[in-house]
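Morning run. Coffee first, then this:
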Amino acid sequence: MTNKILITLALPFLFSIGICSPAWAQFQVGLDARLQEQQLSIDTTKAAWWFRDNLAIRGDYSWNSQDLGLSAVYKINRSANSFYIGLAENDLEGKIAPKLSFTKKAALIAGMEWELPRIKPGLSLAIEAGVNPNEFTGKPGSSAMSSRVGISLNYRFRSPLAHIDDKTF
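And here it is:
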């Protein structure tokens, strides 16, 4: 129940920040289908606030595991087909693995995003992989989160303030 309340409060807050932020801010929402046990299923809702053309803060909520995550994303090249990397922290509420440290819940993420302006301006398709660096040690129980691969359909829109001319005021 607290997850639903948190999501209900967080998404409008992020939406308001995106609209009321300076002209360069953009807001992006998306659905993520993750490949788990050789099956692709829609699992996660994403909301990202791009406060620069190449920097974003993103929140993720997984319906199946009721996992709330936070990511910092850096887009390496800013074009229609762009590569991005980031750092994510999963299980912010501590429901999946409450006794594990921050480093065992962290993940490095990398992805490729393709914009689809011919279908709908602002629409994009992304493929993303995430891995916990502790998995490379080979020790059992070294990380709370397993590696993941996902594909997401996203919609990005600019703040309405982006279209206001500075000379108006």
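The chain has two helices and eight strands. Good start to the day.
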